[in-house]
From TrEMBL, chain A:
Record note on quaternary structure: Component of the RNA exosome core complex (Exo-9), composed of EXOSC1, EXOSC2, EXOSC3, EXOSC4, EXOSC5, EXOSC6, EXOSC7, EXOSC8 and EXOSC9; within the complex interacts with EXOSC2, EXOSC7 and EXOSC9. The catalytically inactive RNA exosome core complex (Exo-9) associates with the catalytic subunit EXOSC10/RRP6. Exo-9 may associate with DIS3 to form the nucleolar exosome complex, or DIS3L to form the cytoplasmic exosome complex.
UniProt domain Exoribonuclease phosphorolytic: residue ranges: 21-152, 155-219
GO biological process, one term: rRNA processing
Keywords: Acetylation, Cytoplasm, Exosome, Nucleus, RNA-binding, rRNA processing
Gene3D superfamilies (alphabetical): GHMP Kinase, N-terminal domain (3.30.230.70)
Protein name: Exosome complex component RRP41
Record carries keyword Cytoplasm: yes
UniProt subcellular location: Cytoplasm; Nucleus, Nucleolus; Nucleus, Nucleoplasm
Any one annotated GO CC term: nucleoplasm
Top-rank lineage group of the source organism: Eukaryota
Gene Ontology MF, one: RNA binding
TrEMBL record, chain B:
Name the UniProt record assigns to this protein: Exosome complex exonuclease RRP44
Compartment annotation: Cytoplasm; Nucleus, Nucleolus; Nucleus, Nucleoplasm
Organism: Umbra pygmaea
Coiled coil stretches, renumbered: none
Pfam family membership, one: OB_Dis3
Family: Belongs to the RNR ribonuclease family.
Chaperone keyword on record: no
Subunit-level organization: Component of the RNA exosome complex; within the complex interacts with EXOSC4, EXOSC7 and EXOSC9 of the exosome core complex (Exo-9). The catalytically inactive RNA exosome core complex (Exo-9) associates with the catalytic subunit EXOSC10/RRP6. Exo-9 may associate with DIS3 to form the nucleolar exosome complex, or DIS3L to form the cytoplasmic exosome complex. Exo-9 is formed by a hexameric base ring consisting of the heterodimers EXOSC4-EXOSC9, EXOSC5-EXOSC8 and EXOSC6-EXOSC7, and a cap ring consisting of EXOSC1, EXOSC2 and EXOSC3; DIS3 associates with the base ring of Exo-9.
CDD domains, per database record: PIN_Rrp44-like
Keywords from the named record: Acetylation, Cytoplasm, Endonuclease, Exonuclease, Exosome, Hydrolase, Magnesium, Manganese, Nuclease, Nucleus, Phosphoprotein, RNA-binding, rRNA processing
Principal subcellular localization: cytoplasm
Alphabetical list of InterPro entries matching this protein: Dis3_CSD2, NA-bd_OB-fold, PIN-like_dom_sf, PIN_dom, RNase_II/R, RNase_II/R_CS, RNR_Ribonuclease, Rrp44_CSD1
Automatic annotation (TrEMBL), chain C:
Gene3D superfamilies noted in UniProt: 2.40.50.100, Nucleic acid-binding proteins
Compartment list: Cytoplasm; Nucleus, Nucleolus
Domain RRP4 S1: residue ranges: 90-162
Keyword field contains Membrane: no
Keywords: Cytoplasm, Exosome, Nucleus, Phosphoprotein, RNA-binding, rRNA processing
Entry's family note: Belongs to the RRP4 family.
Species this protein is from: Umbra pygmaea (Eastern mudminnow)
Domain (Exosome complex component N-terminal) ranges: 41-78
Annotated protein name in UniProt: Exosome complex component RRP4
Example GO BP: rRNA processing
Length: 245, 952, 308
């Protein structure tokens, strides 16, 4: 019959969260030995893996080399088993190409690329399980991976989605909420300065609503950054405790 | 932030898809009880002092109904007596899934602060969430969830309430559930038991819906109807194409016949004919049903017979058979056969509470009676009540509970009484309810958004508006009009052109988007004009005062001003918010007099003449483009000022000034439509009038053919021209009759959102684009158009819903529905007053014309009263006269006299009050004189033999 | 959402060693908190100081007059200079560092060598010892014969000669200990785990030699029987390596991986202790997490005993 009720009168969402609550976030850094940096993140049922190589000599076409800063090369892909219907090709489709571009733009805003002229940084993001907010999970995982690789960043890049239901902004949308129609806004934020690295929204939204929605997304990004910060500090302490003696 | 790691896997069948969803369990969901020491809630819903006296539970308690109780006994829950009820999320979700209307009603109760209904989000509570066990059905799981929550509540209340003991009473009608609940120590009653035990309100029992157990007692064991197929088989059938899904539409005239409107893709929609009780198979008007198309050799033609389910006979099987025989014999030739089918199952019931009257059982002490709905498309309903004696002669509302297969009639229960039948207020109430017209007084919240009196135009208002107070603006309306929403002016410009202004009341200035006033107006959609009563869309302060452009007061307006040259071509158009001061409020007649009176030469008259001459040119141009002039007889009652009874009846007369005003309104609407569409191509609210499919013109064609005329219906222009040419010498009314018929061929004009449709054409007005701008006081669509236009000229800002095409579209649907219902209500009101009129007048002789010819009746239009009625030639009590019906020529020969369409006849008209539920206007034939059929013109008031009757 | 597919395991003739995932153990911080004392750990975006009197070093940047960390790691102060040393990073070569690298390109008068640093390092033709004497002039013939010495894919050991302005390294192999590497095993580890020492070339008592490149590349090879100085470092022995040597090399490789996984600093002693501690286990078992943990623990104890 009628579609899903995304927000009940009591203020609970489909999965029992309140409008501004995030899903459970779990993350780990340094999951691969061979890569320069790597990280794994779970935001609810969305699971993403990010791997960073570099900075290294520009491979492939030399012509991409920039003399004043590093080239950032991103590839976003989704595992064939990540969605409820099996995907034909994990990357290279329009959506993934677009996502790759978004990631590239996001990290060009955050990484201090000018420190590494003529070199290249590769960021590979793979979505292992998709349940809404793929881009945000990808960005958050990539941030951790970049930090793990010891590549200098201005600040964390934290991403989160926000949507709009019945005049109420919802944060960190799950798949059911994303596909339930309505607006979905993805934001990548450098939380400390409040700089927006990327803001993306496809649907129509009235300008009166934009501010509240951005506000909600920003708050969510800041909450995410707290979680990421914890993960990084934990990792930092563990590793330096081991090598410390 | 409290989150749990527990996940629940929900699987949806259909393919091998597995859906994993997160499910967070929380520990911050509170019980909602006043005085609870454990929960850290900010506000409470359930009261600490519970007073509801019951024989069963003498202690304070909260009710906790299960899903089926809510679904079937919503009428009980709505009663003000029932308070302090816990609705579990499980229950709420199930109700939402199973019945949209009941869900809405439940939500309304939950929002009502007085009712103290609390929604407990048990599915996300740490202690009350349960997982479905292997082998457990979804229903059993939900029942268990309800029991677990009830248990949690009773334990919780024991701990958390310090002084008072409040217990939880679980209401369930399910025997298994009840047993298990009692086992786990819960206080459980059947809904019926509980309601019967209530001391304060014995009549509440009547509102109980009948449960399964009772149904068996009532009905005979004989199975009357075929079993309905289960939903799974229906779905499979629809998928394979064996069944069709469609909306069931009962016939108004024949209770044994109905059509099912099967929605197809695009123009593929078809109608399936259903005949006979067995095939109708317990469907009720508006149900969503699955039909099986019968083999072609069993197809039948829709009968032209008018049949009514008379008399409340319990044992009427024989009669039915006879009736069905009549049906079959009446079936026409093979060429008129239509796809015929039978209902195999009901996909979704669309029951609502029905208005009607109780038909008392002959047995005096009986508590079971038949209820006859006012709407003839709804079958009689069997109800159980102990207040039969009081309810007799009253209009009451009844809800259907179910229709078992061995019952001739559906079972229902009493909801509420509306008042004495025949009473003007009651009848008005009935027709408003039947047509779903919101007519309650405006609530305090709504009224709070009205401007504070005394109101005056402020400096700020003046600053942003154009001052047009110096213009000679006047309004022209029907007499007695208090909600004047348009005014006009016309003046010569130095360059020889004329400036014409249409000034519309600026309602959107007072009704700001989103507030309660706006929401109420959006819901009402339109002002409903009944005879002698007006149901306002906006409160009276606005409709008859602040927004009404009365003369000699300063009013805010939204003006559309054109510069028009002498060929009536628009040179320039502009829109502005303005302040005007109308110089005169005229009636059509007054305006006409001024124009015609050559002695009058004041500013107002000159302005009117200018407008009139321009309007004539505009009208001519419009007709040249192919606009239709159609006709429908409109009646006007002269109402006695004291008794409010109609004392005279006449068709409305149209003057030149009517069309003058209309012409400029059309012009304004078209100009505005263009402007808002240019500005907002995605979300402009427009009005379109689709061209009717050729088959719609069949009646018109056959009618014209009977007078050897040809009507071209290929284009609007051709239709208009051939209608103009269709004249019969010595029969001046013929053309009007033809136009009345043409009107019935037309489609409904509808509102739509420009982003959702591509066809904007308005057929009747021959305009490529059209909207409604000129009556914001009485139509909500105009308010939206005002807002759009205001944004377009930079006078106002947008708001989100205005720019959302889906929301606009939903709004359009509501407006279309309200408009349609308002029209029906209006007609019903006229019909009712016609009856009143004839009741007072006794029997009258009148001339009329035959509008349609049916197999056993003719339908007659009385031009004088603009009403039509049916003269039957068949009667149960008498041998039928010899009838021969010619389908092709549409003639009916009765005892040697042939009735053609448009024949002039004489009839007597009287009120048949024998059935108080359906009072009828009875028409009997006087001329031509046919032996044994016609009656003598009568001066006295003796009731005639039931030869013929008519329905108003 | 996931589509779960029942996995069908193919039976492979060789039994695969499978295990279920175990819950990751949290490193008990309280136990090793002492190690953290006096350490100033920062994450990107952390303000280190808003005092303007300091100099901005690696891993920091100025954000609105504030000295801010750009990497996650430990703050190091040298007088007025503040740096943040990240936990893990690419190799930042300094003059004199020993590196192991792989030739990626042969260009005019130079080779490009991948040394796990931000840009490929350069080995100039003039910085290598060519057969026939150190001071021989480089002729056009030598340029043509460059591929005879080093090809793409060859591994070399070298020393950082200088650092270019863009951070790229210039290498030299003008010592007999440097040059092309023959038979052996390369292990790529994090450069931050290599302890700086006087020498990075060790002949271990177990009959194997190791080069612990500062860039995190570690080379294990059988200790050459005789120093073949004539070859100038560009001769590769193709003689088969005995099984026992190969076993020792394999064991050492796994030990190095174990140490690296537990972030133990690598130098001759730690490698040797680890090798000894691993003796009770089969070579392939060393990589099993629980064995790895045990071996590393024993190694740590030995190291502490030795230090203390």
């Amino acid at each position: 019959m009628a579609g899903l009720e995304l927000l009940s009168d009591q203020g609970y969402r489909l999965d029992g969260r309140k409008a501004t609550e995030l899903r459970k976030v779990q993350a780990r850094m340094g999951v691969f030995a061979q890569a320069d940096g790597s990280a794994y993140i779970e935001q609810g049922n969305t699971k993403a893996l990010a791997v960073v190589y570099g900075p290294h000599e520009v491979r492939g076409s030399r012509s991409r080399t920039l003399n004043d800063r590093a080239v950032i090369n991103c590839q976003y892909s989704m595992a064939t088993f990540s969605t409820s219907e099996r995907k034909r090709r994990p990357h290279g489709d329009r959506k993934s190409t677009e996502m790759s571009l978004h990631l590239k733009q996001t990290f060009e805003a955050a990484v201090l690329t000018n420190l590494y002229p003529r070199s290249q940084i590769d960021i590979y993001v793979k979505i292992l399980q998709s349940d809404g907010g793929n881009y945000s999970a990808g960005v958050n995982a990539a941030t951790l991976a970049v930090i793990d690789a010891g590549i200098p960043l201005r600040d964390y890049v934290c991403a989160c989605t926000a949507g709009f239901v019945d005049e109420t902004p919802l944060t960190d949308l799950c798949h059911a909420e994303e596909s339930g129609g309505g607006t979905s806004l993805a934001m990548a934020l450098l939380p400390r300065g409040g700089h927006i690295a990327l803001l993306q929204m496809d649907a129509r939204l009235h300008q009166d609503h934009l501010e509240t929605l951005m506000e909600a997304a920003m708050t969510a990004c800041k909450s995410i950054s707290k979680v990421l910060d914890q993960v990084v500090r934990q990792h930092l302490q563990e590793v330096s405790a081991l090598t410390g003696e | 932030m409290l989150k749990s790691k527990t996940f629940v896997k929900k699987t949806r069948s259909g393919g091998v898809m597995k859906i994993v969803r997160e499910h967070y369990l929380r520990d911050d969901i509170w019980c909602g009880t006043e005085g609870c020491v454990e929960c850290k809630q900010e506000e409470t819903v359930l009261q600490k002092d519970v007073h509801i006296e019951s024989n069963l539970c003498s202690f304070p308690h909260y009710l906790l109904p299960d899903t089926n109780v809510v679904l079937s006994q919503i009428d009980i829950l709505e009663d003000p007596l029932i308070k302090n009820v816990i609705i579990l999320q499980t229950v709420l979700q199930e109700v939402r899934h199973r019945s949209a209307p009941i869900y809405k009603r439940l939500k309304d109760i939950l929002h009502d602060k007085e009712k103290h209904f609390y929604t407990f989000t048990n599915e996300h509570h740490r202690d009350t969430f349960i997982e479905r066990e292997p082998g457990e059905s979804a229903n059993d799981r939900n029942d268990r969830a309800i029991r677990v929550s009830a248990k949690w509540y009773s334990d919780h209340l024991k701990k958390a309430l310090s002084e008072e003991e409040i217990q939880i009473v679980l209401l369930t009608n399910d025997r298994g559930n009840k047993e298990k609940a009692v086992e786990s120590g819960l206080l459980t009653y059947k809904c019926e038991e509980y309601v019967k035990s209530l001391i304060a309100n014995p009549e509440l029992v009547d509102r109980l819906a009948l449960t399964d157990d009772d149904k068996n007692e009532i009905t005979s064991s004989k199975v009357l109807f075929p079993e309905h197929l289960p939903l799974s088989r229906i779905q499979a059938g629809i998928k394979s194409g064996a069944f069709q899904q469609g909306t069931f539409r009962a016939s108004r005239d024949n209770y044994l016949e109905a059509t099912v409107f099967v929605h197809g893709e695009g123009d593929q929609s078809t109608e399936v004919l259903i005949q006979g009780l067995q095939n109708l198979n317990r469907s009720v008007h508006q149900d969503l049903v699955a039909v099986e198309i019968l083999p072609q050799n069993q197809w039948v033609a829709p009968s032209s017979v008018v049949l009514q389910d008379e008399g409340p006979k319990e044992d009427d099987a024989t009669e039915e058979v006879e009736a069905e025989k009549t049906l079959k014999s009446a079936a026409g030739g093979a060429e008129s056969r239509k796809p015929t089918g039978r209902v195999v199952g009901i996909i979704k019931r669309n029951w609502r509470p029905f208005c009607g009257m109780l038909f008392l059982s002959q047995i005096k002490e009986a508590t079971r009676h038949l209820f006859t709905p006012a709407d003839r498309r709804i079958p009689r309903i069997r109800v159980e009540t102990r207040q039969a004696a009081t309810l007799a002669g009253q209009r009451i509302m009844v809800a259907i509970d179910g229709w078992p297969k061995h019952s001739r009639y559906p079972n229902g229960h009493f909801v509420r009484s509306l008042g004495c039948a025949g009473d003007k207020d009651t009848e008005t109430e009935v027709l408003l309810l039947e047509h779903d017209v919101p007519h309650q007084d405006f609530s305090q919240t709504v009224l709070s958004f009205l401007p504070k009196m005394p109101w005056s135009i402020t400096e700020e208002d003046m600053a942003v508006r154009e001052d047009l107070r110096h213009l000679t603006v006047c309004s022209v309306d029907p007499p007695g009009c208090t909600d004047i929403d348009d005014a006009l002016h016309c003046r010569d410009l130095p360059n020889g052109n004329q400036e014409v202004g249409v000034h519309i009341a600026d309602v959107s200035h007072f009704i700001r988007p989103g507030n309660a006033l706006d929401q109420e107006a959006a819901n009402r959609g339109t002002t409903v004009y009944l005879t002698g009563k007006r149901i306002d869309m906006v409160p009276e302060l606005l409709s008859s005062n602040l927004c009404s452009l009365r003369c000699n007061v300063e009013r805010l307006a939204f003006s559309c001003i054109w510069e028009i040259n002498d060929k009536a071509e628009i040179v320039k158009t502009r829109f502005t918010k303005s302040v005007i001061n109308s110089k005169a409020s005229l009636t059509y007649a007054e305006a006409q007099m001024r124009i015609d009176d050559t002695n009058m030469n004041d500013e107002i008259t000159k302005s009117l003449r200018g407008l009139n001459s321009l309007a004539k040119i505009l009208k001519r141009q419009r007709i040249e483009k192919g606009a239709l002039t159609l006709s429908s007889p409109e009646v006007r009652f002269h109402i006695d000022s004291e008794t409010h009874d109609p004392i005279d009846l006449q068709t409305k007369e149209l003057k030149e000034t009517n069309s003058m005003v209309e012409e400029f309104m059309l012009l304004a609407n078209i100009s505005v439509a263009q402007k808002i569409y240019d500005e907002f191509s995605e979300c402009a609210l427009l009005r379109k009038h689709p061209a009717p499919p050729p088959s719609n013109y069949d009646i018109l064609n056959t009618a014209a053919k009977s007078k050897d005329l040809v009507i071209h219906t290929d284009t609007a222009k051709a239709l208009a021209d051939s209608l103009d040419a269709a004249q019969v010498d010595g029969f001046p009314y013929f053309n009007t009759l033809l136009r009345i018929l043409a009107t019935r061929c037309m489609m409904q004009a509808v509102y739509f959102c420009s982003g959702m449709d591509s066809d904007f054409h308005h057929y009747g007005l021959a305009s490529p684009i059209y909207t409604h701008f000129t009556s914001p006081i009485r139509r909500y669509s105009d308010i939206i158009v005002h807002r759009l236009l205001a944004v377009a000229i930079g006078a106002d800002s947008t708001y989100p819903d205005l720019m959302d095409k889906h929301k606009q579209s939903a709004l359009c649907n509501n407006l279309n529905y309200r408009h349609k219902m308002a029209q029906y209500a209006q007609r019903a009101s006229v019909a009712f007053h016609t009856q009143l009129f004839f009741k007072n007048r006794g029997i009258m002789n009148e001339e009329g014309f035959i509008l349609f010819v049916r197999k056993n009746a003719i339908i007659i239009l009385i031009p004088k009263f603009g009403m039509e009625g049916t003269v039957f030639f068949e009667n149960k009590n008498k041998p039928s006269p010899k009838l021969t019906f010619n389908q092709e020529a549409t003639t009916l020969t009765v005892e040697g006299h042939t009735f053609n369409m448009f024949d002039k006849v004489k009839v007597t008209i009287s009120l048949d009050a024998s059935n108080i539920q359906h009072q009828k206007i009875r028409m009997s034939l006087v001329e031509p004189v046919i032996l044994g059929v016609s009656v003598a013109p009568s001066e006295d008031n003796q009731p005639k033999a039931k030869k013929a009757k008519l329905d108003g | 959402m996931t589509s779960n597919k029942s996995a069908v395991w193919k039976t492979v003739s060789m039994a695969a060693d499978m295990r279920l995932p175990t819950i990751r153990k949290q490193v008990s911080l309280s136990a090793s908190l002492s190690a953290l004392d006096g350490k100033d750990l920062v994450v990107p975006g952390d303000v280190i100081t808003s005092d303007t009197g300091f100099m901005r070093g690696h891993g920091t940047y100025m954000d609105e007059e504030k000295l801010t960390a750009s990497v996650a790691g430990e703050v190091e102060r040298v007088n007025k200079l503040i740096c943040v040393r990240p936990l893990k990073t690419r190799f930042n070569g300094e003059v004199g560092d020993v590196v192991v690298g792989r030739v990626t390109e042969v260009q005019q008068k130079r080779w490009k060598v991948e040394t796990n640093s931000r840009l490929d390092s350069v080995l100039l033709l003039s910085s290598v010892n060519l057969p026939g004497g150190e001071l021989r002039r480089r002729s056009a013939e030598d340029e043509l014969a460059m591929r005879d010495y080093l090809l793409e894919g060859d591994l070399i050991s070298a020393e950082v000669q200088s650092v270019f302005s863009d951070g790229a390294l210039s290498l030299h192999t003008r010592s007999l200990k440097y040059g092309k590497l023959g038979q052996g095993v390369l292990i790529q580890l994090s450069p931050s785990l290599i302890k700086r020492q006087k020498t990075h070339f060790h002949n271990l008592p177990c009959g194997t030699s190791i080069i612990l490149g500062n860039n995190g590349f570690v080379w294990l090879y059988p200790t050459p029987g005789h120093q073949d100085e004539e070859a100038g470092g560009y001769y590769t022995s193709l003689e088969p390596v005995s099984l026992s040597d190969r076993e020792v090399i394999s064991r050492l490789r796994n030990c190095l991986l174990a140490l690296s996984a537990h972030k133990v600093m690598l130098y001759d002693t730690s490698v040797l202790y680890c090798y000894e501690s691993s003796m009770p286990h089969q070579i392939k078992d060393i990589l099993k997490p629980e064995v790895m943990e045990e071996v590393v623990m024993v190694t740590r104890q030995k190291l502490m005993e030795q230090e203390g």
